[in-house]
Specification:
Elements: E1 7-9, E2 17-19, E3 31-36, E4 48-57, E5 62-65, E6 73-76, H1 84-90, E7 98-103, E8 125-134
Antiparallel strand pairs: 1-2, 3-7, 4-5, 4-6, 4-8, 7-8
Length: 147
């Protein structure tokens, strides 16, 4: 069975727009589609990455988008500082990649959802993520687990 994804307009660095297939159900489980393959460094757990992202509920409203704010988002990946779906989907990808990520509730905000963002406990979240860079830092979150 083919997995149905929303259509994504724009390319890396451009504000994406999602078009959902009429009447289609969201894919089951965590799904990652590489829309553009980057050629930069590979993202490892513990890296502090720079991304632009666009988050939308499956066939619903946008709940967050860094494209509408000044500056990209910077955060550690693969160490539980973001939703589990992001940790799993982004680690191992290369800088310069544009990803389409479908996140089920159990890899997102769980059954409680995120009411402040308008996310219910059964919403499938869809993200377009542009991996823009890896911060060079003397501190690496992996050192927290080496002791």
């Amino acid at each position: 069975m083919d997995i149905i994804y929303p259509e994504v307009s724009g390319s890396f660095g451009q504000t994406p727009e999602l078009t959902f297939p009429e009447g289609a159900e969201a894919p089951k489980g965590l799904r990652v589609k590489v829309l553009e393959e980057g050629t930069g460094r590979v993202v490892h757990a513990g890296d502090e990455i720079e991304v632009d992202y666009h988050g939308q509920i499956w066939d619903g409203p946008i709940f967050d988008s860094s494209y509408y704010r000044d500056g990209e988002a910077v955060f550690p990946i693969g160490v539980g500082m973001v939703i589990e779906g992001w940790d799993e989907a982004i680690v191992g990808k290369q800088v310069g990649s544009r990803l389409l990520i479908c996140v089920p509730p159990f890899k997102g905000y769980g059954p409680q959802g995120n009411p402040r963002a308008g996310i219910k406990g059964d919403d499938i979240l869809v993200f377009v993520v542009d991996i823009k860079g890896i911060q060079d830092s003397a501190f690496n979150f992996n050192t927290l687990h080496d002791n």
